[in-house]
């Protein structure tokens, strides 16, 4: 697997994982009981952006490692059927 391909796959995995992690990030202003005027009640009370980015990065690295292992063990055929051993 080339570095370019791995980077592209990691980028897609990272963004997908980000949207999977966001709902678990915290409580809404309505749940916290303190809605700031001018904001929706569903807005996060205390956004923990660094924690979200770190969790997304770790999850993405684990998934990328699994994808690379699957490709190395020929679980995915990326070259087409004529180049398979």
Number of domains: 1
Radius of gyration computed on alpha carbons: 19 Å
- Poorly predicted regions are none
User: What is the residue-mean pLDDT, rounded to a whole number?
Assistant: 86
- Assign the structural class, choosing from mainly alpha, mainly beta, alpha/beta, alpha+beta, or little secondary structure: mainly alpha
Major beta-sheet overview: none
Q: H/E element string?
A: HHH
Number of strands: 0
Multimerization state: single chain
- The level of helicity is 55-70%
Brief account:
This protein is mostly helical and 85 residues long. The protein contains three helices and no strands.
What is the element layout, followed by pairings?
Elements: H1 3-21, H2 29-32, H3 49-72
Describe this protein's structure:
The chain has 85 residues and is an all-alpha fold. The protein has one domain (3-79). Helix content is 55%, strand content 0%. The protein has three helices and no strands. The chain has helices spanning 3-21, 29-32, 49-72. Helix 1 (3-21) crosses helix 3. The longest helix is centred in the last third of the chain and has 24 residues, at 49-72. The radius of gyration is 19 Å and the shape is rod-shaped. The mean pLDDT is 86.
Which short descriptors sum up this protein?
mainly alpha; 85 residues
């Amino acid at each position: 697997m080339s570095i370019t391909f791995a980077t592209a796959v990691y980028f897609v995995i990272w963004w997908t994982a980000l949207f999977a992690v966001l709902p678990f990030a915290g409580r809404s202003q309505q749940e916290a009981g303190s809605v700031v005027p001018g904001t929706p009640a569903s807005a996060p009370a205390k956004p923990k952006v660094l924690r979200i980015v770190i969790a997304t990065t770790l999850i993405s690295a684990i998934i990328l490692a699994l994808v690379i292992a699957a490709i190395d063990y020929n679980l995915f055929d990326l070259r087409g059927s004529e180049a398979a051993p």
